[in-house]
Hints:
7 helices, single chain
Amino acid sequence: MANRRTRLSRRFAALFVIAVLVLAASFLAGVVSAAHRDVGYRHTVDQGFASSASALVLSSNVTGVQLAHVLEHPGALGRVVLDARLESLQQAAALDSETAQSLAVPPPDAGAFKRLADTLRLRAEAVASILRTIEGLLRLTPVKPSGSAARVPRAAPPVSIAGAQALLLHAGEQLVVADKTYRGLPEAFKAASGGATLPGSRWSFATTGTLTPDTLSGDAASMAATAKLAATVDLRIAAIETTPLELPVGPGYPVTPTSRFVAAVSVINLGSAPSTVEAIIRVTPLGRSHGHFDSGTARGVVSAGGAVALHFAAMAVAPGEHCLVTIDLVRPHIQTTVTGLTWSRTVVIGQNARQ
């Protein structure tokens, strides 16, 4: 009997707690709802949104002006500066779009949050598309220097002129939709909020052709034909390291007695575009020297204005051998010069003492 009474008491206590929580939640919801309908509360919400949103809109306006300026005369900037500016603008547009998401709660009047967020999102997507398209069209790479210890440079997917025209046309259409989404919002928000203001914002202007779909699409062919924006590759052998080390005394370049000859080559790229690098080493016995022919290949990637070190597998040699060692770089198809692509030495392998 006592156990039954205890269980009933516990159930009653639990039901009582639940009832209290339900009543408290209902009361709180009523208070919040009443607060949301309160004129003073709405005024505070709208003013706070207007202050934060205005900063984002003004930042977006600056990004739009700078993007139009960059694309007006891209050839005047050159490949490196053009890519750096576009990457900076893409990051700014993406940051504005991301920051706008924090303005969702509490919601302002006139659907202002959704229209602002959609506007900044469309602009961020358009700028990112413009960056990727131009990088693919011109084979641009980041300006961060790349050496043998750096990671392989980011390779932009190649884009043809026709493909770039279609992609840039779509990006321009996104900018037009973004402008239409924002158009009229400052007036509607001011009327609904009782005086809170938002700045105007427009990127695309049909009257001047600024950032319009047709203008952006037409930029593809002109950029591809601009000499200062053309992709160039100029690979050159910068240095050779051998093990054993060569001694700078003649005749030939003697090394200490060994049966394994190891070499590494440092390659620089004086061009404006990244390139794959393929180096071939050949060891050829000279005259009646004993030994045999051996060869090997090493491959890598070098960025524009960068350098890379390639290491060959060990070559088999014989003590006393006189051999011609040559290292050749395979000329990339867009490289116009053969200067610096070949290195050669006559290497004399030292005799063992007992010989």
